[in-house]
Predict the 3D structure of the following.
Amino acid sequence: MGVTLTIDQHIARVVIDRPEALNAMNESVLVQMKQAVDSIQNNENVRVAIFMGGGVKSFVAGADINYMSSMTPLEGEKWGKFGQSVFMAISELRCPTIAVIQGYALGGGTELAISCDLRIASEKACFAQPEVKLGIIPGFGGTQRLTRLIGPGYAKQMIFTGDQFSALQALAMGLVNEVVSHDKLIERVDALAQSIISGSPNGIRLAKEAIEHGLQGSLNKGLQLEAALFGLCFASPEQREGMTAFVEKRKPKF
Ligand code: CAA
């Protein structure tokens, strides 16, 4: 048990499976997750990466509380930086990433989900940043990514209360892209992955780069980068194929 990576038909699937702790992340889980992410980044064949928890009860129930319970301040900082670096590696994957949330996404679980590009939740999913109930704060990016994703009002509500939020509440806050009935979750995620795969890999990669860089800086700098990457698209055979296919009234082959 731990983290497994399978790659099939352009789709990488990362499954975090620690049933005895509702998939909570200890050091070993984070190390394995980083190895899986590195393998995906080094595999040019992968066009979508899916992250999910093993079993149906939990996506990830956070960082492992037993593992953290006797940490010193220095160890806590090191652990936070390590988790941040793994989740940064996920957010820096060139291919689009989808978090599939079928149960508890708590603390580091929500932070993992928001390190992915898209979040598809089962109607049974629930989300929380319960760290203040443990005397700590979110440490794997939650104070930063959550605020950027759903705005300071909702982020502060989640972080200050530690309350659990249903999938539908998460949808209303913009925390998830879609809520799907539990038995249709995998089917919907597969369809979404196929839809992404049908597009130009080069176009999607450059679009992700423009969006991610744009989020870090000013509108002007973001627009400059967009123009440069837009131009770069015209050096790619995929632009020729995409536009030729349109003119010839056929589907493009990427
Ligand atoms: N760490 C370690 N063990 C955990 C865990 C966690 N985050 N979450 C669950 N488990 C373990 C439980 O201790 C329990 O183990 P035992 O069977 O050995 O007692 C097992 O998983 C099953 O859990 P429960 O019996 O508690 O199941 P439940 O259905 O009654 O409750 C739950 C489920 C609401 C998720 C509850 O387990 C819970 O509140 N877990 C803690 C969630 C949490 O606070 N997460 C945030 C961690 S801090 C963090 O993530 C910091 C950060 O930013 C990186």
Notes: DSSP finds ten helices and ten strands in the chain.
